[in-house]
Design a protein that fits this description.
By secondary structure, the protein is mainly alpha-helical. It contains 13 helices and 3 strands, in the order ββααααααβααααααα. It has a 3-stranded antiparallel β-sheet with strand order 2-1-3. A hairpin with a 5-residue loop joins β1 and β2. The chain is elongated.
């Protein structure tokens, strides 16, 4: 599906994703992430865009070392931020400050795709469990790492732990759906994406993924086109969504429309392998 989880981008601070606690009715701010390489509806787990204004240190009296590291992180200077946090003398920090450093180390390592190191720090934050918001963020990032490193069952474990605590969000359902998709459980994946839409009816990741799966499997091409069009209408410059729409047109037998949309996708993302594959199939041309 040029399977991209436009809501799963490794290691992002999450903000504004509409997470809710179904047990206690408490609303939490949750996050997004984009990874146009994980799943057409996936990297939105870690690339759901980080909101620097909401990336607050959670109630910590911030040391200048931490402040500088956080500043570099927000500027997407992952290497520099990592060096800043690693150079901190932990003996001088409080328990909360050490936990804050571990949190950002986990995110920096994730952004730098050093996943083994990231797991160490993210699991540390989860184990301490002092802040439910941070635990949510870290479990989502752990799930992202497990998915892209093909440890799907472990990803499902992290996500189900969140659900067992009464937490729900489009991001959780989208990521669970991707895990199901990765195991070729297409019906289950669609049901999970539909749950994401129940919470957020404008969730383009879920729209796009449902459309792609319905088209690619030949389950319901007309319904696939409706979902893919909705996603493209909302985000017309998203190459994954354009690719899904083009593929749905191809599956419906509308070759000229398919070529048009796939060419647009390729113009935006010329190096995306899935899009190039679809383009070759539909046109017989080399991109």
């Amino acid at each position: 599906m040029a399977a991209k989880q436009s809501d799963i981008d490794g290691g992002g601070e999450v903000s504004g994703g509409g997470i809710k606690n179904s047990a206690g009715g408490v609303a939490y701010s949750a996050g997004k992430t984009n990874n146009t390489q994980a799943l057409r509806g996936g990297k939105d787990v870690l690339n759901k865009k980080e909101n620097p204004d909401t990336a607050q240190t959670q109630g910590v009296a911030v040391d200048s070392k931490i402040q500088e590291g956080v500043k570099l992180y927000r500027q997407k200077e992952w290497d520099k931020a990592l060096k800043e946090f690693l150079s901190a003398d932990l003996s001088k920090f409080s328990f909360d400050e050490k936990n804050e450093i571990a949190y950002y180390l986990g995110l920096c390592y994730t952004k730098l795709e050093k996943y083994d190191e990231a797991l160490t720090y993210l699991e540390q934050v989860v184990t301490l469990g002092a802040d439910i918001y941070r635990v949510y963020q870290c479990r989502m990032t752990l799930a992202y790492i497990y998915i892209i490193t093909k440890r799907v069952r472990m990803a499902e474990y992290e996500l189900k732990r969140l659900q067992s605590n009464g937490l729900e969000s489009p991001l959780i359902y989208n990521t669970l759906a991707y895990a199901a998709f990765a195991r070729k459980q297409h019906k289950n994946a669609i049901e999970l994406y539909e749950k994401a839409l129940d919470i957020d009816s404008d969730n383009t990741t879920a729209m796009n993924c449902i459309g792609y799966i319905l088209a690619d499997t030949g389950t319901d091409v007309m319904r696939a086109l409706r979902f893919c069009r909705k996603a493209v209408d909302k985000k017309p410059q998203n190459p994954a969504y354009l690719d899904s729409l083009g593929w749905a047109y191809y599956k419906s037998g509308e070759i000229l429309e398919a070529r048009t949309w796939l060419r647009r996708a390729l113009e935006i993302a010329p190096n995306e392998e899935e899009i190039k594959k679809h383009f070759r199939i539909v046109t017989g041309e080399k991109p």
